[in-house]
Amino acid sequence: MISEEEQAAHPMPGAWHWWASYDSGDIFSIGPFDSRDEVFQAVIEDRCGEYKTKDGDWRISALIAECKFGNVDLALYFDEDRFLEDAWERMDDNNQGSNEDGDCHPLEGLSTECKRDLEASVRSAIRSWQKRHELPLKSYYFASTRNEENIDVPHPDE
């Protein structure tokens, strides 16, 4: 789960839009729309949620909700431990690391504070790059939904 602090730092957060689903929210296939009224009208015009009642009346049913895509904050995928481990090995491979006994590596002795600062600095640079290039990196899945409502209205031809 992404913390509130990380969400606040996101360079390209997703926007809220209205969507509709005919299968109780597994797939929201109608949208995006800027307003509840727009998605409501789209459901009526689309008619995919139509069904016949026991009394023989035709109705239209759907789940509507405000949804926000989970745009990816690429910076969260930078891990200083993995980066430093890779750098350590590559430095050794290029005769810039440990001596023959595996001692005296240039990266030995980095403090926890120094490593945390590296991670924060690189993540900041990645976020700046992502924002500068306007890369939302939209996930397939919604990160959040709100204002969910089951609608069930008479068919317009009734």
Could you write a compact summary of the structure shown?
This protein has 158 residues and is an alpha+beta fold. The chain has four helices and five strands; from the N terminus they run αββαββααβ. Strands 1, 2, 3, 4 and 5 form a five-stranded antiparallel β-sheet that branches.
End-to-end separation in angstroms reads 47 Å
Helix content: 25-40%
Q: How confident is the prediction overall: mean pLDDT?
A: 87
Quickly count the helices.
4
Number of domains: 2
Low-confidence stretches: none
Assess the beta-strand content as a share of residues. Answer: 25-35%
* Helix/strand order: HEEHEEHHE
Rounded Rg = 25 Å
Mass-distribution shape? rod-shaped
Task: Please outline the major beta sheet.
Answer: 5 strands, antiparallel
**Alpha-beta content class:** alpha+beta
How many strands appear in the DSSP assignment?
Answer: 5
Features:
158 residues; alpha+beta; five-stranded antiparallel sheet; 4 helices
Show the helix and strand layout.
Elements: H1 4-9, E1 16-21, E2 28-33, H2 36-46, E3 50-52, E4 58-69, H3 80-93, H4 112-132, E5 142-154
Provide an overview of this structure.
- It is a single chain.
- By secondary structure, the protein is an alpha+beta fold.
- The protein has 2 domains: 4-72 and 138-154, no CATH class; 74-132, no CATH class.
- Helix content is 33%, strand content 25%.
- The protein has 4 helices and 5 strands, in the order αββαββααβ.
- The chain has helices spanning 4-9, 36-46, 80-93, 112-132; strands at residues 16-21, 28-33, 50-52, 58-69, 142-154.
- Strands 1, 2, 3, 4 and 5 form a 5-stranded antiparallel sheet that branches.
- Strand 3 and strand 4 form a beta hairpin.
- It starts with a helix and ends with a strand.
- The mean pLDDT is 87.
